[in-house]
Write a structure and sequence with these properties.
Strand content: 15-25%
CATH architecture: 3-Layer(aba) Sandwich
Largest sheet: 8 strands, mixed
Number of helices: 11
Oligomer: single chain
Number of domains: 1
Radius of gyration: 17 Å
Number of strands: 8
Structural class: alpha/beta
CATH class: Alpha Beta
CATH superfamily: Alpha/Beta hydrolase fold, catalytic domain
């Protein structure tokens, strides 16, 4: 695994890691809310590395990237983060694979920088809107009850909410080792960062039908965080998109059914 420090939007320092075939098509993995690049371990440490250049970034405020106090509300900053990673690492028409909030970040990038430098988009249990009635409608009720705890500076309340959130991420019970591995990198995200992500208000209903690049939509049918109706809405808006639903997966199909996920991502990438 090779590590990079990339200067993103507004001068923020971003941590990025890569592995795999340096001559293969790049896949840039963009994790979700309160996560980090380590969420993609079953992709980075798989046979995808034989054929593809696999790159995973810690988004601003997460993992080993810088965590400024007030740098989460501007779409251009998020867009410039992805743009910087593509440019500094010289990624040639990468696939952007965005999990959950990563879908919002992909939309930020396309809205600001267009589709010209990317080869494909992979929406994984993704959201593409925030802070509106439409955005709330695709989020599970039990998940929404946890939101105040995500912003709490009380350690017990914060950890309790994150623990419940992570248990909801998978349909099957994760092993204690996996659950506490996830919890470890979630608690490193300051509450003000989580609040910054949730405080945004945006819609991309105008953007999605305009996409011309190839799109793959992956979603777990048992997802109780981002409801499967979100995948239906995305498929309706992006008529040329491929859609793949996982009957026995929750919010993290890339973890719960990594073999199928990696196989379908490989086929998508090979077909571009």
């Amino acid at each position: 695994m090779k590590a990079h420090t990339v200067t993103g939007g507004g001068g923020i320092q971003l941590h990025v890691e890569e592995t795999g075939n340096p001559d293969g098509r790049p896949i840039l993995f963009i994790h979700g809310f309160s996560q980090c690049r380590l969420a993609w371990s079953k992709q980075l440490n798989s046979d995808l590395a034989n054929d593809f250049r696999l790159v995973a970034m810690d988004i601003r405020g997460h993992g080993l990237s810088a965590k400024p106090r007030d740098a989460y509300g501007d779409a251009k900053l998020w867009a410039d983060d992805v743009h910087a990673v593509i440019g500094v690492l010289g990624l040639d028409r990468p696939i952007l694979s965005g999990w959950s909030y990563g879908g919002v970040i992909i939309c930020d990038y396309v809205r600001v920088h267009g589709e010209g430098r990317i080869g494909g988009i992979h929406l994984v249990a993704a959201v593409t809107k925030r802070g509106t009635d439409g955005a709330l409608a695709v989020l599970g009720a039990d998940f929404l009850t946890l939101v105040p705890g995500f912003f709490s500076n009380d350690v017990e309340e914060s950890v309790r909410s994150l623990h419940a959130f992570l248990r909801m991420c998978t349909y099957a019970e994760p092993s204690p080792a996996d659950l506490y591995f996830f919890l470890g990198y979630n608690v490193t995200v300051p509450p003000y960062v989580r609040q910054g992500l949730f405080s945004r208000t945006l819609e991309n209903d105008d953007l999605l039908p305009q996409l011309r690049t190839s799109v793959l939509i992956t979603h777990g049918e048992k997802d109780t965080i981002v409801l499967p109706v979100a995948a239906e809405q995305h498929a309706e808006a992006i008529r040329h998109a491929q859609k793949s639903l996982y009957p026995n997966a929750g919010h993290a199909p890339f973890f719960e059914d990594a073999a199928r996920f990696n196989l379908e991502l490989r086929a998508f990438a090979k077909g571009l």
